[in-house]
Design goal:
It comes from Paenibacillus macquariensis. The chain has about 300 residues and is an alpha/beta fold. The chain is built from 13 helices and eight strands. α3 runs parallel beside α4 (about 90-100) and α12 (about 255-265) packs across α13 (about 285-305). It starts with a helix and ends with a helix. The structure holds 2-(acetylamino)-2-deoxy-D-mannose (MN9) and pyruvic acid (PYR).
Length: about 300
């Protein structure tokens, strides 16, 4: 892909949360509202149906409905990346073809989950997805949940294809991130996964980031990015540390996504509870959550003032 076409995948891409109604059914209306909230905040893109989006906990029809709603709401303003990874290649291909049909800008997939797969299997799985559409493809490397260790040699091989434009790497080793960037080359995107290390990832070669906690504080991640681009590392670090305090608190709830979705609910963006086995916020935790939301709001106000 030409370098100027890669630009739209850089910057702050919010890994969107799941969107359900009160009965726990997928809600296109809630998806539109949440997507609009992020477009208004001014992020670069949305990553739909990934870990944060609970794609793995939904049926194919539900995943399609959410993606279609998001693309029709914000697809002309934001870059929409569809995570179409599923346990089977067949389902992943079906979702990828649907993503192309509704107008997503790229597809992305983890290795097929549950089975311990050989590199040959994962390669064939990804290849079938890549060949099934004309969309760009972004590898999703998250070994702590998939169990699959992506080698530099498989990454390098995949990256030679024009359609394979990048990798989202959720490994906490920034060294591995740097090695992937070196292997992929200048025109291959490396997108930072661990939100706690956004600045570290950027500093060592990431072109941008896709994250699950961006969704409750996109303004703060955009601030870090602006500081980084301006070369103000002291200020960038200050905001990364603030963000990390918030993330530490978010991770102290029984489910990160339950906490994030509850924070948005406090702001009037109701996307329902996460789906079991992910837990909602317990009654007894709401006060703590409210305090956290207030803290985030104070930080956002500070960023907006500057
Ligand atoms: C393991 C995992 O889910 N990583 C996410 C994405 O890569 C991150 O966005 C984390 O949710 C975030 O960094 C909080 O630890
Ligand atoms: C966390 C993340 O990037 C995802 O939802 O896949």
């Amino acid at each position: 892909m030409k370098p100027d076409q890669l630009e739209r995948f850089k910057g702050i891409t919010v890994a969107m949360y799941s969107c359900y109604d009160e009965q726990g059914k997928v809600s296109a209306g809630a998806a539109r509202k949440l997507a609009r909230y992020y477009a208004t905040a001014g992020v670069s893109g949305l990553y739909v149906g990934g870990s944060s989006g609970e794609g793995m906990l939904q049926s194919l029809e539900e995943r399609k409905a959410i993606l279609a709603a998001v693309v029709s709401e914000v697809g002309r303003e934001l870059t929409v990346i569809a995570h179409i990874g599923a346990p089977s290649t067949r389902d992943s291909v079906e979702l990828a073809q649907h993503a192309e049909l509704v107008g997503a800008h790229a597809v992305s997939a983890v290795p097929a989950i549950y089975y311990r797969l050989s590199p040959e299997s994962v390669e064939a799985h990804w290849q079938a997805i890549i060949d099934s559409t004309s969309l760009p493809f972004i590898i999703y490397h998250i070994p702590q949940t998939t169990g699959f260790q992506l080698s530099k040699s498989l990454l390098t091989k995949m990256a030679t294809q024009d359609k394979v434009i990048g990798v989202k790497i959720s490994v906490e080793s920034t060294f591995e991130l740097q090695q992937f960037k070196a292997a992929g080359g200048d025109d291959f995107l490396v997108l930072n996964g661990p939100d706690e290390q956004y600045l570290a990832g950027r500093s060592i070669g990431a072109d941008g980031g896709i994250g699950g906690t961006y969704g409750v504080m996109p303004e703060l991640f955009m601030k870090i990015e602006r500081c980084y681009q301006a070369g103000d590392m002291v200020e960038a670090r200050k905001w990364q540390f603030i963000v990390n305090d918030v993330i530490t608190e978010l991770l102290s709830f029984p489910s990160l996504y339950g906490a994030c979705k509850a924070i948005l609910k406090l702001r009037g963006i109701d996307s329902g509870n996460p789906r079991m086995p992910l837990l909602p916020v317990a009654e007894t935790d709401w006060e703590r959550l409210q305090c956290l939301n207030e803290r985030i709001k104070t930080y956002v106000a500070q960023v907006n003032e500057l």
